[in-house]
Amino acid sequence: MAEAFTAGVKPGGLTSDTEIRLLLCYMVKIAGPVDRETLQNALLQEQLVNYFEFADALAELQRQQLIAAGEGGFTITPKGASVANALAEDLPRSVRESAISAVIRLQSWAHRAAQNHAEVLHDENGYRVLCSIRDEGLPDIFRLELVMPDALTAEEVQNRFIARGSQIYGALLDTLTRPLRDDERRPEGAL
Fold this sequence. Notes:
Arc Repressor Mutant, subunit A, alpha+beta, two-stranded antiparallel sheet, 6 helices, 2 domains, 3-stranded antiparallel sheet
């Protein structure tokens, strides 16, 4: 078991190349298909492995045919599943849980961002946040444009729309389709 580079790895993170390969194999088995960027971001954000060790381990897993790269990301092979099943318990539970939790958070965010789209534009009038909800194969089902006073506020609105776009859409639909109270109705003869 060779020692891995430890720069950027928190105490309790993985320090052997074998452990890193095993963790990657386990993650692909549990969360796959999963793309390289998601695996990388999950492990580096949690400070569980060093970037260079991650890259080497991922390449080695492919070379050994424990994982396979496909259009949707990496998937586990039968050989890789066997290794993950047999040896995953050798990894610290806290490392496994932290890694899987991080991958699931990133995958969930990516899914929401694909459906709840928000873009910040800057022009002479300030910052605009263009929000939309997309349905696969259909045009936008909802669009909203907001003007914000500065870049930071615009970015916060962008992130919150991605996280809560479906809730915002639901609340707006509920408000617009709920029967009006008497004091809200248009008076007879009003234009």
